[in-house]
Structure formats: C-alpha cells, structure tokens
Amino acid sequence: MEDILKVDNIEKYYGSRSSLTKALDNISFVVKKGEFLCFMGASGSGKTTLLNCISTIDKVTAGHIFVGEVDITKLKGNELNKFRREELGFVFQDFNLLDTLTAYENIALALSIQNANVKDMETKIKQVSEELGITNVLNKYPYQMSGGEKQRVASARAIVTNPKLVLADEPTGALDSKSSKMLLERFNYLNELGATILMVTHDAFTASYANRVIFIKDGKIFKEIHKGQDTRKEFFNKIIDVVTLLGGNLNDAL
Q1: 8 A C-beta contact, residue 86 and residue 114
Q2: Structural domains for the chain
Q3: pLDDT at 130 over 60
Q4: pLDDT tens string 200-241
Q5: What separation in angstroms does the CA of 214 have from each of 40, 76, 195?
Q6: Are 110 and 160 in contact (CB under 8 A)?
Q7: Rounded Cα distance, 26 and 22, in Å
Q8: How far, in Å, CA of 209 to CA of 185, rounded?
Q9: Alpha-carbon span 91 to 72, nearest angstrom
Q10: Could you give the C-alpha distances from 28 to 138, 212, 214, in angstroms and in order?
Q11: Banded pLDDT at 195 (limits 50, 70, 90)
C-alpha cells in the first residue's frame, strides 16, 4: 500500500528567543493510504499542533511533511491554497457550518470552490448524503439540526471532494454518546471506502475506532499501537493501558 503522508523530523517552537516553547520535538512517522490514524495525549502534549502542521494551518520550525511526493512545508501562495482546497478535508469540533446556508449549500460550497459543474455537484452531494444518512436534512439550516446532524453535514463537506486526507480535530467533542457512535461508525465506513483519516481525540472510546493510535507526550511520540486483529473492545483496553503508562490523572489524557 502506498505512503500518502510522511512526517520527517518535524519540530515546532512557539514564543520569542527569550522564552521558547518546544511544542513538537523531532517527530517522524508514515501513514499508508487508507489508514485510520488517531493521535492521543494530554492537553498541551502537542497533538493538535501536529495536526495543525499537517493541515498547513501552522508552519513547522524544522523538518518536512510530504503528502504523496509534495513537500507541503515548501508550499506558498496559490500552490498552498490549491493544496488545501483539493487535497484536504477538515472536520472541526464546532462544525464551522455557515448559518445562512442549508446543509446542501454548505456541502456544495466545497465543490463550488473547485469549480465543479452543477450536475456533478448534485451527483456527489446525493452520494455522500446517502453514505452519511443526512438526505433528510439537506434543506435544513444549521439551527434546525441536532449536533449529530450538523457534525455529519460537516463530515460530508469534508469528504465530498474526495480529498487525500480527512483531518478531524476532536470531532466527537461536542456530541452526545449516541451521535458520537453514529459519527465514528460513519468514519469507519468512509475508511472502508478508501478515505485516509487522521483524528485527534482525548477519548479512548473514540480512538478505539481507529486502526492505529500514536500517543504524544511533551511533543514527542511516546508510543504507538496497532489494532490488527483485535476487536474494538480489546483495542480499547490496550489504549487504556497506554494512557495509564502516560502517567497522571486518566482524565487528563482521555
């Protein structure tokens, strides 16, 4: 299976010369096409900074990040905008839907930015809406939808362009347990369809849906575990074991 992402010895510093904070410390890993990878760690461990660097929201201080054959740390201007528009899909904790647009229009926005024609747009939105079970809310505005429906609409917007990477930052953080489970099952379904998913979470239950978990501590990779042939319950227990090894209060890392 081909490598879709290569993170090569990246470092990230914040602050001034007199007061530097090292958020990421020489991190390297490879992601295969079609993986569902989760990053876990306590607050301030660097996991969200890592996702932000991969998404080009943040710039690395040192090192390189390759998506396919492209070194995205060197992209600027129109090339960077094109990469974000065509290669990445984002799922945010607070949905980031536009209140003045219907669900259909919010999803269509991602395609219109790529200058898709109306016929293709309709076909793709119909397909993704059926996959995520949101055909019944396409004509609703965000204020008319539940949290779970809004998150699935946001997920549809993220994947409708068939991006190389789907990046999810605490996607279940604002959802109840039923909506969280529904969203995670949809993520698994998308993963089975070939989507490569990178997700940040504090929650071991959420992480157990991935097929690999990388634990971050103090800006470094502490450990990584693979699901392999484990059941989700068995993988969940392994995740809990590593979280315990991380030390401190479990609630700080879950």
Answers
A1: yes
A2: 3-253 (3.40.50.300)
A3: yes
A4: 998 999 999 999 999 999 999 999 999 999 999 999 999 999
A5: 6, 29, 19
A6: yes
A7: 10
A8: 8
A9: 20
A10: 41, 15, 11
A11: confident
From first CA to last CA, the distance across the chain in angstroms is 31
Return d(Cα 237, Cα 62) in angstroms, integer.
35
* Vertex 91: Cα angle to 129 and 138 (nearest 5): 25
Tell me: the pLDDT tens digits for 69-95? Answer: 999 999 999 999 989 888 898 887 778
Given a contact cutoff of 8 angstroms between Cβ atoms, the answer to whether 157 and 106 are in contact is yes
Amino acid in the structure at residue 241: D
What single-letter DSSP state applies at residue 1? -
- Nearest-angstrom CA–CA distance, 161 and 143: 25
Phi, psi of 28 (to 5 degrees): -140, 140
What does the chain come to in residues? 254
The C-alpha atoms of residue 4 and residue 164 are separated, in whole angstroms, by 8
CA 101 to chain centre: 24
Q: Are 224 and 216 in contact (CB under 8 A)?
A: no
